[in-house]
Amino acid sequence: MDKKYSDIKKSSILGIIGNLFLLIIKGIISFISGSMAMLADTFNSASDVISSYITYIGNKISSQKADEDHNLGHGKAEYIYSMLISIIMFLLSFSVIKSSLISLITQEKFKFSYWLIIVCIITIAVKLFLFLYTNKVSKKYNNILIKANSKDHFNDCIITSSNLISCLLSQVGIYFVDALLGIAIGFWIALNAIKIFIESYNVLMDKSLDEQKKEEVLSVIKEYPEILKVNHFNSTPIGYQYQVSFTIFVDGNLSTFASHDIANKLEKEIDKKFPEIYLTVIHVNPIKVKNSSK
Predict the structure, then answer these.
(1) Which residues touch 219 (CB under 8 Å, ≥6 apart)?
(2) Which one of 152-166, 187-201, 208-222, 229-243 scores highest in mean pLDDT?
């Protein structure tokens, strides 16, 4: 677990450093050139810096162990902070879209500079590295904060590639593409913000385990011939994992030790087979069985 939070911490720090560097060079070049697409990309880098910092703070809090006030740990901090990231991204998208629309209506032209192309190439290289690194960490730990950052890094590669195209088109007198790309970037940011918000909201509202995974757990339970019936299956998200609880019915003639031994074995098997399940709580109920022997 410590290795997990150490890797996520490293990812967020790399994100802060990389995005801060890109924010500075993009801000300077967008100010000099007047490019709305580059300005939109600058706003996007600003949100990335904030997102990476929030990831760092969220990871620090969620890594704290369970205590008397938080018996199941602080895992949901990941989703609270990822929701905050989505709100910041959504607000920034409005500013980007507004500025780009004004540029499109007034038909503003930006001053071409080879620095625009250089900044685009540097951005693509930095973002591609950050995407590959964070995507690896995201897949390893299934962490929503790093997953959100990883998606954002990949999106930025596509966005900046579009900026590069608009710079090249300006060389042949096509300027309106710059403003259109600024608008597209704004909507792209908003769309990703909504996706992150919904995913975080679902966890904070205790959305249950998906139906397919539930069926997989039930299929494991059915492999135990001593378990005659199962009901009251519930699941609650705890950070990126779940707590599941259910009631099993066994032959009432079994001893207390024997019936609870079945539950203990089942708990261990579920924990082993399903890494997304943090805790399994099984309640054992006796049921009357005709012609059963002790």
Answers:
(1) none
(2) 208-222
Instruction: Name the residue type at position 157.
Output: C
Q: How far apart are the C-alpha atoms of 19 and 134, rounded to whole Å?
A: 14
Of 153, 187, 204, the domain-final residue: 204
Token pair 């990231």 in the structure block, residue:
85
Q: Is the pTM of this model over 0.85?
A: no
Local structure of 137: helix, strand or coil: helix
| Per-position b or e across 215-252, b if 16+ CB within 10 A of its CB | eebeeebeebebbeebeeeebbbbbbbbbbebebbbbe
Domain end among 177, 204, 231: 204
| pLDDT 10s digits, 91-139 | 777 777 876 777 677 665 556 667 778 888 888 899 899 889 888 888 7
Q: For 226-254, write each residue's pLDDT tens digit.
A: 999 998 898 887 766 788 999 999 998 88
Does residue 292 form part of some domain?
A: no
Full residue range of the structural domain in which residue 219 is found: 211-287
